[in-house]
Every structure is written in C-alpha cells, then in structure tokens.
Amino acid sequence: MISVAAETTDLLLSLGVAPERLTGGDLAARSPITGEVTARLRTDDVAAAAHAAERATEAFRVWRSVPAPRRGELARLFGAELRAHKERLGRLVTLEAGKVLSEGLGEVQEMIDICDFAVGLSRQLHGLTIATERPDHRMMETWKPLGPVGVISAFNFPVAVWAWNAALALVCGDPVIWKPSEKTPLTALAAQSLFERAAAAFRAQGGEAPEGLSTALIGGRALGEALADDPRLPLVSATGSTAMGREVGPRLARRFARGLLELGGNNAAVVRASADLDLTVRAVAFAAMGTAGQRCTTLRRLFVQDAIYAPLLDRLKRAYASVTVGDPRADGVLVGPLIDAAAYEAMVRALDQARAMGARVTGGERVEVAGPEAFYVRPALVEIEAHAGPVLTETFAPILYVLRHERLEDAIALQNAVSQGLSSAIFTADLREAELFLSERGSDCGIANVNIGPSGAEIGGAFGGEKETGGGREAGSDSWRAYMRRATNTVNYGSALPLAQGVRFDL
Ligand code: NAD
C-alpha cells in the first residue's frame, strides 16, 4: 500500500484543495492508520472567525431573499458533487478518521441523503393557518431564515454532521460557519471545496450564491469559543463531548442564542429471552465494535436476561474473536484504529477500573498493526455485576459492559440510570415487551429501537438525545425548525378593530 500521507495529498488535490493549504502550518494533521503526519495546516485565529461572521452576515442579507426552492437547487448541486466524488471523499474519511472503507463511503452517502432531503424540504418549509377568535381576521404562522449558523463538529463523523447542519441551514436561508474537529481538518477542507464547486455551478445558472455562504475555519477550542460568543450567530450547533457542551451551553445562554447540542451517549440494549439470537449477535457486534467503538451511538451496555446469558455470551465471545482488527483500507477488516494515544489510554484506564471491581475482561489488548504511533485494540467484552464506575461514563472506545437482569422493568431502570440519553434498543419477540420499552415508562433516550442496535441511524428521523446528550435534534423530521425563526402573523381584513379576549379600549 502507498503511504497514507501521499494518498491523502493526492485525494485532497483531486478534490480541489489548494496545495499551499497543506504545508507550512502549525497544525499537524495525522492519520490514525499509521500515526504519520499527513499535512501541516495554518490555523485560523479568532480574528478570522470574526471576519467569517461578518461575511456570513452579509451573505445572509442576500441569501434570505432567494426563494427557498432556489436555495434547494444549491443543495441539489452539492449532492451531485458529493455523488460524483463519493469514492474519493469516502476514502479520505477512512484515511483521516480511521473508519473502514464501507463506513467512510457510508458517511458520504449520509451527506448525499441529507442533500436529497433538503431539496424536498426546500418546498415544504410551511407553517400553519390558525383559527382566530376575531371576525374578519386571519392568523398564520410563518417561518423565516434565522441568520448565520455556527457548526462545531467532532472527529468521529468528520463531514456528515456538518452536512446534516449545512444542508438544512442553507435551504432554510442561513449561511454556515464550520469549525471541524482539529483531529480531522482535511476532510473538512475537501467537503468545503466540493461545496464551493456547487456554489460556482449555482452561479453559472444565474443563481445568487454570495461569498461567505459556507466557511470552514481550521483550529481548536478557542475558535469554537469564538463562535459560541459571536453575537452575529443566532444559532450554534455543537457536536462533541458532554464536557464541551458544558462549556458551550452557558456561553450561548449568556447571549440568549440558540444551541443545538449533540453530545455524548452511553447507549444500552436489553436482550430478552425470546430474542432472535442470530440477529441479536450481529446487531450487537456492529453496534459495539463498528467504528472501533467511536460512534456517539455505540452500544456500551448490554443487559441480558438470565435464561440466555450463558448462550448469548458464548456467541458474542466467538463473534468478538472472529473480528479482524487492522488497516481499515484492507478487505475483511471490520475494526480500524482508535483516533489517538489519548483514546487508547482512556480505554486502558476504564478496563483497569472494571477489573478492580471484579469484572472479567475478554479482549481489550493492543494490536500491533502499523508501529507505535498507531493505536489498534481488540474490542473488549466486560462481564460485570455492578452498574457503577466506568459503566456509567462514556469511554470512546470499543468496550461493551455485559450485565444480567431478570425483570424487564429492572433492565429499563438500569438502562435509564445514566446521565446521558442518546440511543437504546431492545431485542425481543414479545410485543408487550417491545411496546413497554418504547412507552413513556420505557427508554428515556432520543432514539429507541426494537430488534435493531442503537447505532446506524437514517437521516429521515430526528437525531439526538436527552439529558446530558444535550437535547438537540438534527437531520430529518421537523429538525429544520431549529434553523428558522417563527413569526405569528395576524391580519385584519375588516373595518372594525375587535380586541382579543373581549378587551375594550373605546376612545
Ligand atoms: P470533543 O468534545 O473533544 O470536540 C468536539 C468539538 O468541540 C471539536 O471541534 C473541538 O475543537 C470543539 N471544542 C472542544 N472544547 C470546546 C469548547 N470549550 N468550546 C468550543 N468548542 C470546543 O469531542 P470529540 O472527541 O471530537 O468527539 C467525541 C465526542 O463527541 C463523544 O463524546 C461523542 O459521543 C460525541 N458525539 C456526539 C454526537 C451526537 O450526535 N450526539 C455525534 C458525534 C460525536
């Protein structure tokens, strides 16, 4: 295989990123596949963030008046660029984030899907007509563009999360300023470059796509803070750890801005005795080991009913032993590397804590694949009795804690007994159990599934979670409303002036 750095540069250039952006800077971009430096990028400072906000504000003045279905045409053109470059961008995601190739491609497919969704949405940004108590009056609700939107994103979905936000924001009439993770800046440059091509195609049709409609800023936490504090951004969508949300949320509240927070998860599945074990093993394997345990929706806690505990565990151990860990570009590999040394150290710490609590750990060892700067691990199955210690926190690595239960109510209570509330699942053939799990007495998460693992959502539904996951909803359903402001309009088409609630004000 050719070197990761050389392949990364080739892909970036072919996706339209200028070569001078990739050298001589202060931020070393690395690939987790080998740990090697792939580019040295100049970072943007806080003044650049302020400049981007100014440009986005100017762009907003133009873009808000472009009819929404025309804005949808830009989303269509962006989707076309992504379709044409899916293989290259998908491979770049693999090189930069370490996902196996089908997941790298899947991430780009998700971007295409949200563009398609946004095209349809651009003709459906409708409000209500509401019955009014006054004669000769009409009351309605209308939705208006909100203003420039800040997007802060995490390393593990380096481009899809931005696209979820950007595609919707743009058809809603809002420019976007994006601060990608400092661990994955290169895919961001590539995605921004493809967006600029789409904007150029839109202009070539005679469309008005102002400069500053989409800006990518490269840098770390200080840039994120600058976006959170900028009064020109009425909405900041921030995806990442709960620790990050705890910083960003109050900053937004201080200036009464909207936050769309998509934070950490500690996702669980309940397996009941009636479950189809073949299906359950496959679903658990993907949800717990896929993306090397680095999805916000990764399955981290498994509650297994006593009667099937031994057979299910036996099958899971075999599935875990069969999984190939290695270079995510290679055929047959299902588990690629952790993002960096810190992720590996966090995994070791969590497993040590679990062992100290008497847990039995299968797997979890480091695997030598590409030298000391690359961090590959065997996914870990942890049989543990207490729902405590590391089980209660999100360790962003492939660790699955397995616990026994007998009564479904007890399993639901435990699954809800963590501070996060993102995703959850039940495996059962019993309709009553499935419905109880989905009911108001069931899972308290933003996502609750039956006979499907907690990870791997489609874009059609609203995505997000409760409690310390932040409460935000992105992607499908009516998530678009976060990107618009609602106005209630009352029109009097009569010649009298009746006041609401029968109030009199006779002059
Ligand atoms: P992270 O919190 O370290 O960083 C996320 C982003 O926030 C980065 O761009 C970072 O530069 C920025 N940031 C960090 N501190 C900030 C601050 N104080 N102010 C402003 N910006 C700041 O997260 P990560 O390690 O990149 O990603 C993993 C985490 O993201 C996990 O907790 C995972 O569950 C979560 N995640 C959640 C979702 C979701 O939709 N709920 C999706 C993907 C990832």
From TrEMBL:
Family per record: Belongs to the aldehyde dehydrogenase family.
Assembly and interaction partners: Homotetramer.
UniProt protein name: aldehyde dehydrogenase (NAD(+))
Active-site residues from the entry: E262
Keywords, sorted A to Z: NAD, Oxidoreductase
InterPro entries referenced in this protein's UniProt entry, alphabetically: Ald_DH/histidinol_DH, Ald_DH_C, Ald_DH_CS_GLU, Ald_DH_N, Aldehyde_DH_dom, ALDH7A1-like
MF term (GO), any: aldehyde dehydrogenase (NAD+) activity
Start and end residues of each Aldehyde dehydrogenase domain: 27-486
SUPFAM superfamilies: ALDH-like
Native organism: Methylopila jiangsuensis
Top-level division of the source organism's lineage: Bacteria
Leader peptide range in chain numbering: none
Keyword Oxidoreductase: yes
EC number: 1.2.1.3
